[in-house]
Amino acid sequence: MAAVKRLKRVAALQPGFISFKSSAESDDLNSGRRKRVNKNKKKNWNKHSDIQDVEEFLDDVRLQERATGGLISEKPDDSLFFVDIGEQKKSVLPEVQERKKGKKSKSRPLRIDLILQHDSLVPPPKDVLAYQQPNAKKLRRIAENAEKLAAMGVLPRRQKRLLNRRPATKTSKAKTAANNFPDRPYYDLWGGEAKETADPYYLEQTGKRRVKRPEKLNAKPSILPAVEVIAPGGSYNPDFFSHQALLLEAHEVEVTRERAELRIERQLAVKREDTATEETVFQELVEGLVEEEEEEEDDVVSIRGGLQQEKKTEKERKRERADKIKSQQKQAARVFTDKKQQLFQLRSIQATLKRREQRTRERVAQRKANQEAEKSMPRRLGRLKFQAQDLEIQLSDEIPGSLRTLKPEGSVLKDRFKSMQKRNMIEPRERAKFKRRHKVKYVEKRAFREIT
Amino acid sequence: MGGLQKKKYERGSATNYITRNKARKKLQLSLADFRRLCILKGIYPHEPKHKKKVNKGSTAPRTFYLLKDIRFLLHEPIVRKFREYKVFVRKLRKAYGKAEWTAVERLRDNKPGYKLDHIIKERYPTFIDALRDIDDALSMCFLFSTFARTGKCHVQTITLCRRLTVEWMNYVVTSRSLRKVFISIKGIYYQAEVLGQLITWLVPYQFAHDHPTDVDYRVMATFTEMYTTLFGFINFRLYQTLNLVYPPKVTQHEKLNRWVSCSLQKLSALSASLARVVATAEEEEENQLDQFPADGEDLENMEAREKEQKEQEAQNRLFEGLKFFLNREVPRESLAFILRCFGAEVSWDKSLCIGGTYNVTDETITHQIVDRPDIDKQYINRYYIQPQWVFDSVNAKMRLPVEDYFLGVTLPPHLSPFVEEKDGDYVPPEKLKLMALQRGEKHEEEEDDDDDDDDEEYNDEVDDEDLTEEKNLKKMEDQRSQGKTLAVKVTPGKVKPWETGSVGNKVRLEKEEKAEEKRLAIMMMKKKEKYLYDKIMFGKKRTTREVSEHLRKIHSGSSFLLLLVL
C-alpha cells in the first residue's frame, strides 16, 4: 500500500508528467480520520486498503488516451504549443497568393477538419450488424412462416399486444342526466298502471318494495293559501280609500315598533317626585350636623319575659273543652239556618249561576277563537321568531300615473321566502356568524420590534 | 311498589318527537343535505303542544320533527345518492388538488345524479292533488324565470323554469282558462280555472330588481328543483287532456321568422296556436250539456248551471274578432297573454320580439295599446287606449267603454277583483258604476249625467278630506322618518338674540337643571338598566355619527341624488 502510494507520488513528481486532475487533495482528507486496522490479515487486504489514488491515476491516464489521443506528456511540443510571433504583413502580389493558396489548400487540410478528426487511442466500436450478411434462404423461410400464421389467424406478438391495449375512443355511457337540464323530457306520471309483478312478501323482504307514506304527511302544515293576494290598496292605481286603509295599517305597524323602541327609555325615566327640591337638598347637607333632642327611651319593654307560665289546670282544660263544643254547636246551627234561608235566596242564586255560566261560555268561545287564530299564525319552530315582512306600499306621492312609470315595490323572492316560513314549511334562520376558534394574536415583526 | 317504575320522558309525547340534530345524525347526513331532503320529501318540523314535556324539562327553543317522519325518511333511496354525491365531491377535490386531469375527467363522467319522479308520485298520488298544489310551483317558476343569468343559481334551472312557464301560458291561452288579473305594485296576479281548480299565481315584473341578501338561495333552489319536476308532469298531463303535442310545437302555417329555429322563442311569442296530436278542425267544438230529465229542484240548479256556462263562454270570447297592436313601452308578454286568452289577435313591432305578425301600418287594427302621453301619427279607424282597459275589461267580464282610457285621460282606479265585499262594507264608487254597467248599459246612459253630478259632489267632498288627510299623513310620515334624528341635528350656527340678560340666564338654568336631572337618573340606575342605557347610547351615537357623515357628504356635494333614489 505504502509502496503504491510512493510510486504514485514519485510518478506525480516526475518532471514530464502532467495529470489532468490534481490528486494532491485526496491524501489530506483521510489522513486524520482513519481507524487503526490490522492490515496483516487477509480479510483486511481487500476491505481496508485504499486504492483510490491508484484508481484516480489510472482514470486519468485512460481519460487522456480517450480524449486527446495519447498521454499528453508524450505528445510533441508542436501539437500543444505554438510560438506567437505576431501578425505577418501580407504580401501585395495576388498571383503569388493564389499559388500559395492553392498549395495550401492541397497540402494542408482545413483546421476544422483537423479538429473534428477523432484522435483518441480508443477505437470506435465495431458495428456488428454491418458485418451481418442476410441469409436469403433464412429470410425466405421466416417470411413463409409468417404468411402461414397470418393465414391461420394467429397474429404476431406485437400486434396482439397492440390490440389488447384499451381503445382510445370513449364509449358513451348512459349518464343519469341532471335534474334541471333544460330539455328534460316528461312523461305521464299518473297514467301508467301499478306494476306489482312479483310477490309482495318477496318484495318486502328483499327491500324492493317502497314503504308507504304515512297519512299525516299529506296534511298541509298550514291553512293559509299558497299565494295571498295583496290588499286592494296595493294596486298600481288604487282607489283612494283602500289606499288609505293600507297606509293606516302600515302606520299602525310603525307606531307599535316605535313604542317598543321607546319602551326601555320610558322604563328608565326619572319620576318627577324624586327630583331634588331645595328642601331636600338642605336636609341632606344638614344631616347629622344639628343636635336634635334625643328621643326618650322607652322603658316599657314589650318583650314578654320567657316562659313563666304554669301548667294548665284542670279547670282551664274543662273550660276549653266546653268552649270548643259551644262554638261547634253554634256553627252547626248557623249552617242549618243558612240552608233554610237559601230557599228564599233562590232567585239571587239563580242569577249568580247564570252569570257564572255565561262567563264560562264566553271563555270557551274566546278559547276556541284563539285556537282558530293560532292555526293561521306561523308556529314557533326553532330559535328565531318569525319576522313578518314590511307591508308593500307606496306613499301617496309615489303612486304612478301609468304602468310605464310604475316602480315595483318589494321583492317577490323575499315574499315567497317569507310566505313559506309563514306556512310552517321552513323554520326562520339567520346567517351563520363566523366564529374564530382561537383568538387572533398580533405580533410585531422582528424588524419593527427592533426599531420601536 | 316493586314493579317497574315509570321514568319521566320515556313515553308519550317525549318519545314522539326528535330534535333536528338527532334526526340528522340518525340519517347520517350533513345539515344542508338534511334540509334538502326534508324539502324534497315534504317533511316539515312540528311545534309540540307541551314543549317542556318534549324537551325533557327545558324550554330551550328547538326544532322538532315527528319521529315517524324521520323513520320514514330512512327508507328513501335518494339518501344514498346524497352520500354518494358527498364522496364524489371529495374525490373530485382530491384529483383537482393533485392535478390528475384524467381522473378529474373520469369522475366527472360518472357524476352521480338522482331523479325525483318517484317522490312526486308518492306525494301526489292523483293528478288533482298535484293540481291543487300548483300555485306555489307556478309562482316559484315564474320568479326564477325572471332571474338574471349570472352564475348565482344554475342557468339551467332558469332556462327550465322559463320553458315550463311558457308552456303553461300557452296552455292557458289554448284552453281559455284565465279569469282574473290584478296589477299590483308587487307584481301581476293572475287567476285561472283549470279542471275545476282555481289557481292563483304571481308574476313579478321584468325590470331588474335587487336581490335581497337575507333570503336563503339554497332553500329556494331546492324548492324550485322539486317544483319544476312537478310542474313538468302537470304540463304534460294538461296538454294530454287537450290533445296537444307535448313538448309543444307551433303550427307551421303561421308567418314566423324562418331563421329562428328555437322553439322556445316561438312559443314565448304567444302569438301562434299549438299543434294538436289529432288534426281536428280549427274551431273548437262547443260542448253541449246533456239534457237530463229535469226534476223540480234540479231544474233550478241545471238552469243556473246552464246560465253560468253560457256566461263563461261569452266571457271566453271577450275580445274575439278584435285586432290589437302593442306599442313598445307596454309590457308585451303580459298583455299578449291576456289578450290571446280571450280570443284577440295581437301583434307588436318586429324589432321587439319575434312573432309580430302584422305591422303598425296595418289598416285592420281595431285597438292600439299605448302608454305614452301622446302619439304623433294617429290612424282614424282604431282606438288608442291605455293598457288598463284590458285588465279592467277582463275583471269586469265585459268590454268597458273606451273613452275612460284614452291617451292623456286620468285613469279610473284599478280595482282588485279578488276582493269580495260583504253587505255592510265600503264599496268604491267605481265598482258601483261597474256593477251598474254590468247590469245593463242602457241604464247607464240615462243615469250617466246624474251619476256624474253626484260623483262630482262626492268627489269634491272626498277631495277636501283627501287633502287634509293627506297633509296629516304626510306630516306623520315626515316625523317618522325624522324621528330618529331629532335628537341630533347638525345645523349651521344661528345667532341667538336672546342669549344676553336674565331671559338667557333662565334658559341656561333650565338647561342645566335638565342636564343635572339626567346625570342623577344615570347615577340612580341599577346595573342592568345602566347596561341597557349604555347600549342605547351607543346605538344613538352611531346613528348620529352616520347622520353627520351623510350631512357632510351633502355639504361637499357628492352622491346626494344617490341617497334620494335609494
Automatic annotation (TrEMBL), chain A:
<feature type="compositionally biased region" description="Basic and acidic residues">
    <location>
        <begin position="359"/>
        <end position="376"/>
    </location>
</feature>
<comment type="function">
    <text>May play a role in ribosome biogenesis.</text>
</comment>
<dbReference type="Pfam" id="PF07767">
    <property type="entry name" value="Nop53"/>
</dbReference>
<dbReference type="GO" id="GO:0006364">
    <property type="term" value="P:rRNA processing"/>
</dbReference>
<protein>
    <recommendedName>
        <fullName>Ribosome biogenesis protein NOP53</fullName>
    </recommendedName>
</protein>
<dbReference type="InterPro" id="IPR011687">
    <property type="entry name" value="Nop53/GLTSCR2"/>
</dbReference>
<keyword id="KW-0690">Ribosome biogenesis</keyword>
<keyword id="KW-0539">Nucleus</keyword>
<feature type="region of interest" description="Disordered">
    <location>
        <begin position="355"/>
        <end position="376"/>
    </location>
</feature>
<feature type="compositionally biased region" description="Basic residues">
    <location>
        <begin position="32"/>
        <end position="46"/>
    </location>
</feature>
<feature type="region of interest" description="Disordered">
    <location>
        <begin position="23"/>
        <end position="46"/>
    </location>
</feature>
<comment type="similarity">
    <text>Belongs to the NOP53 family.</text>
</comment>
<dbReference type="GO" id="GO:0000027">
    <property type="term" value="P:ribosomal large subunit assembly"/>
</dbReference>
<dbReference type="GO" id="GO:0005730">
    <property type="term" value="C:nucleolus"/>
</dbReference>
<feature type="compositionally biased region" description="Acidic residues">
    <location>
        <begin position="290"/>
        <end position="300"/>
    </location>
</feature>
<dbReference type="GO" id="GO:0005654">
    <property type="term" value="C:nucleoplasm"/>
</dbReference>
<dbReference type="GO" id="GO:0008097">
    <property type="term" value="F:5S rRNA binding"/>
</dbReference>
<feature type="region of interest" description="Disordered">
    <location>
        <begin position="290"/>
        <end position="330"/>
    </location>
</feature>
<feature type="compositionally biased region" description="Basic and acidic residues">
    <location>
        <begin position="309"/>
        <end position="326"/>
    </location>
</feature>
Automatic annotation (TrEMBL), chain B:
<keyword id="KW-0698">rRNA processing</keyword>
<comment type="subunit">
    <text>Component of the PeBoW complex, composed of BOP1, PES1 and WDR12. Within the PeBoW complex BOP1 interacts directly with PES1 and WDR12. The PeBoW complex also associates with the 66S pre-ribosome.</text>
</comment>
<dbReference type="GO" id="GO:0005654">
    <property type="term" value="C:nucleoplasm"/>
</dbReference>
<comment type="subunit">
    <text>Component of the PeBoW complex, composed of BOP1, PES1 and WDR12. The complex is held together by BOP1, which interacts with PES1 via its N-terminal domain and with WDR12 via a high-affinity interaction between the seven-bladed beta-propeller domains of the 2 proteins. The PeBoW complex associates with the 66S pre-ribosome. The PeBoW complex also associates with DDX27, PES1 interacts directly with DDX27. Interacts with IRS1 and UBTF. May interact with MAP1B.</text>
</comment>
<keyword id="KW-0539">Nucleus</keyword>
<comment type="function">
    <text>Component of the PeBoW complex, which is required for maturation of 28S and 5.8S ribosomal RNAs and formation of the 60S ribosome.</text>
</comment>
<feature type="compositionally biased region" description="Basic and acidic residues">
    <location>
        <begin position="469"/>
        <end position="481"/>
    </location>
</feature>
<dbReference type="InterPro" id="IPR036420">
    <property type="entry name" value="BRCT_dom_sf"/>
</dbReference>
<dbReference type="Pfam" id="PF06732">
    <property type="entry name" value="Pescadillo_N"/>
</dbReference>
<keyword id="KW-0690">Ribosome biogenesis</keyword>
<keyword id="KW-0175">Coiled coil</keyword>
<feature type="domain" description="BRCT">
    <location>
        <begin position="314"/>
        <end position="407"/>
    </location>
</feature>
<dbReference type="GO" id="GO:0043021">
    <property type="term" value="F:ribonucleoprotein complex binding"/>
</dbReference>
<dbReference type="GO" id="GO:0003723">
    <property type="term" value="F:RNA binding"/>
</dbReference>
<feature type="region of interest" description="Disordered">
    <location>
        <begin position="438"/>
        <end position="485"/>
    </location>
</feature>
<dbReference type="GO" id="GO:0000466">
    <property type="term" value="P:maturation of 5.8S rRNA from tricistronic rRNA transcript (SSU-rRNA, 5.8S rRNA, LSU-rRNA)"/>
</dbReference>
<feature type="compositionally biased region" description="Acidic residues">
    <location>
        <begin position="444"/>
        <end position="468"/>
    </location>
</feature>
<protein>
    <recommendedName>
        <fullName>Pescadillo homolog</fullName>
    </recommendedName>
</protein>
<dbReference type="GO" id="GO:0070545">
    <property type="term" value="C:PeBoW complex"/>
</dbReference>
<dbReference type="InterPro" id="IPR001357">
    <property type="entry name" value="BRCT_dom"/>
</dbReference>
<dbReference type="InterPro" id="IPR010613">
    <property type="entry name" value="PES"/>
</dbReference>
<dbReference type="GO" id="GO:0030687">
    <property type="term" value="C:preribosome, large subunit precursor"/>
</dbReference>
